[in-house]
């Protein structure tokens, strides 16, 4: 098959040619946008799931829906040990620019820009340093003076409320709203998550047209609940999971059909058995299978011939890159998790069982466990257990 015509896209956050299995989420978000734009109450949204299930792709698709409705939007990617003040200011600035050029009152636009500037300038020296180390080179608007006494208290929750209020009012003048999209939301500190939740709570009570859409690992809802007791009612939680068989088939068949290519049923059976319907794997195996196939229809023999190449690519780029980030002690911890998870399809493993398997005291393993959680390799949704954030990671470790 012609590799130039290959329709599959196994990239990090890259939208596949067919966004299968997410119609319900997109439809619900369209309703959210319409309700918020009409001044009706609606909750913000949180997407959670393992790595490789398409959370970032869905987050970007939701942002695209907001852009199509002329909303102001901005996006940040949270990072461990980095304050969100400057990234939020940068994202809100992008949202303001998207609506400001349509506003008839330039003085009102300047007032909001002044609030944004005061919010950004309130960042501490440490917050600016961590932002620079993360590659954020953005500076606040320089052509307007900072508004004194607005979003500059130093209390992040209060400052967010005032910033969000002013920006939402500006968008509301045009009959639209503002959407702040946050990827890797679980990496925000508990204190700043609490501030963000508090600001969202106040904004929702005001009925202001601003929503926050976050995406993160499976333990994100737990982290939000730990930050604010009402967080479970503040957001609408969407669990992003692997694709059911029908949707996985659609993700393979429809892109191929645009190139006049079909699949045998046995080939689709084999592909689903290899990928379990995880969207990243669906694209990865689809791509190498296309390249290996000799013609249409693509047969099961083509899938089996291509599988070793897909496994090798995943072992290097998807699994290996994460394994290499771990220390020797963390690798031992993950290997024990893989050994214990073989009969449970790599579901959650008891931390006490890991300690017993390694003949160690549980307390002595805490640094390795905490390091893996911080690096986003494992998560703990329930006390006393851990699980891999990456599907098939236990299988990969057992095969090493």
TrEMBL record:
<keyword id="KW-0479">Metal-binding</keyword>
<keyword id="KW-0408">Iron</keyword>
<dbReference type="Pfam" id="PF13191">
    <property type="entry name" value="AAA_16"/>
</dbReference>
<dbReference type="InterPro" id="IPR041664">
    <property type="entry name" value="AAA_16"/>
</dbReference>
<dbReference type="InterPro" id="IPR027417">
    <property type="entry name" value="P-loop_NTPase"/>
</dbReference>
<feature type="domain" description="Cytochrome c">
    <location>
        <begin position="172"/>
        <end position="279"/>
    </location>
</feature>
<dbReference type="InterPro" id="IPR009056">
    <property type="entry name" value="Cyt_c-like_dom"/>
</dbReference>
<keyword id="KW-0349">Heme</keyword>
<feature type="region of interest" description="Disordered">
    <location>
        <begin position="1"/>
        <end position="24"/>
    </location>
</feature>
<protein>
    <recommendedName>
        <fullName>Cytochrome c domain-containing protein</fullName>
    </recommendedName>
</protein>
């Amino acid at each position: 098959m012609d590799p130039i015509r290959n329709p599959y896209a196994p990239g990090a956050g890259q939208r596949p040619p067919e966004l299968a299995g997410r119609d319900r989420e997109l439809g619900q978000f369209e309703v959210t946008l319409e309700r918020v734009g009409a001044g009706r109450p609606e909750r913000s949204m949180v997407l959670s799931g393992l790595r490789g299930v398409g959370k970032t792709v869905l987050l970007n698709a939701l942002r695209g829906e907001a852009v199509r409705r002329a909303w102001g939007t901005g996006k940040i990617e949270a990072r461990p040990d980095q304050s969100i003040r400057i990234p939020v200011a940068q994202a809100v600035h992008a949202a303001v620019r998207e609506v400001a050029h349509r506003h008839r009152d330039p003085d009102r636009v300047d007032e909001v820009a002044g609030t944004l500037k005061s919010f950004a300038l309130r960042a501490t020296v440490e917050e600016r340093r961590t932002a620079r180390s993360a590659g954020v080179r953005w500076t606040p608007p320089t052509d307007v003076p900072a508004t004194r006494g607005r979003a500059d208290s130093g209390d992040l929750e209060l400052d967010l409320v005032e910033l969000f209020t002013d920006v939402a009012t500006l968008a509301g003048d045009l009959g639209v709203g503002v959407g702040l999209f946050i990827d890797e939301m679980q990496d925000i500190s508990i204190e700043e998550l609490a501030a963000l939740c508090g600001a969202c709570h106040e904004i929702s009570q005001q009925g202001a047209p601003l929503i926050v859409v976050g995406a993160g690992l499976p333990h994100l809802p737990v982290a939000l609940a730990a930050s604010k007791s009402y967080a479970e009612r503040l957001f609408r939680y969407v669990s992003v999971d692997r694709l059911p068989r029908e949707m996985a088939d659609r993700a393979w068949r429809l892109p191929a059909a645009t190139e006049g290519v079909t699949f045998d049923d046995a080939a689709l059976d084999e592909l689903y058995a290899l990928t379990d319907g995880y969207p990243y794997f669906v694209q990865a195996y689809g791509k190498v299978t296309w390249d290996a196939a000799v013609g249409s229809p693509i047969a099961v023999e083509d899938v089996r011939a291509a599988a070793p190449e897909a496994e090798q690519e995943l072992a290097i780029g998807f699994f290996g890159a994460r394994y290499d980030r771990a220390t020797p002690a963390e690798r031992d911890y993950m290997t024990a998790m893989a050994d214990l998870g073989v009969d449970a399809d790599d579901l959650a493993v008891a931390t006490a069982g890991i300690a017993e398997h390694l003949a160690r005291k549980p307390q002595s393993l805490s640094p390795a466990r905490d390091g893996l959680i911080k690096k986003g390799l494992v998560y703990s949704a329930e006390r006393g257990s851990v699980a891999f954030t990456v599907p098939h990671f236990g299988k990969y470790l057992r095969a090493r």
